[in-house]
Amino acid sequence: MCISDGACIHHSPFVAVAPSYPITAAEVEVKVKKTTINCQCSSSTDLSMSLAGQSAVVFGGCGGMGMAIGQHLLRQGVKKLCIVDVVELTDSNLSCLKESGRDALILCKICDISNRAALKQLLERDISEALGSIDILVNSAGIVESEVPDKLIGVNLTGVINSCLIALNLMSRAKGGKGGVIVNVASTAGLEPIPFLPTYCASKHGLIGFTRSLGVEPVYSETGVKFIIICPGGTRTRMFENCRSLSIEIEVLQTMFREFKHPYAPQSPDVVGACIVQAIVEGDNGSTWICNDGKIEIHSYPASRFL
To answer: Which of 21, 200, 264, 301 is an active site residue?
Structure first.
């Protein structure tokens, strides 16, 4: 089952004590413009678009992080929002979203992102008919632990790959679409190895590699679709709080997991929502944004050595 938060979970709450005050988007040292998005791809081509009147799809949208993403998109002018998850959107969460976008059309669809057939039907038929088009796709669904590695990879990596490729086919200007932005929520665990979460780390490293591979000038020139990576650090979500044990049968890793302590307190999901909007506004095609400890920074990779 796909769980609706793509936060990095290795900063576990049972060893990191949250502060008595919330870390919110107000603490992020950025200013998000409400109307105009000045996007730049890797070749510094100037792009302009507005969130006003745009249509967005958020996978994993019923959890804390997905809700924050949806609220920030609505506040910036998105007028059609489809939340996708394996559970129904609660009445209270729907009310919160409506407060952020009073005139917006807000829908909720149920789908397991790891089921490609259901995913394909959802995007190509149900969502396309309901929204008319997809301008922004955010993949924030994820799980941190599974006794069956195939399931974790199916949700965190294969499912997101399928979501991207199906949506890209719909959004591509070469196929009659309008272009747009695809945001994949990875994790800081996709940038550094975490010994006691090897499968989770593999899924997030893979997602970053996939997204960077598509976030290049030739793909943008053909499709008009920009790719962005978001890497949250420890974030207060249901998935974060439920990470209490490991299925991996290596005792030393179990011990490392139990004894692990991290200097960063978990941040509010609101910070991640703000980060995603800023990345859509300012981010280069293929860029990676780190959102950790309530702060946002753009990650720099070393120059390629092999290609």
So the answer is: 200
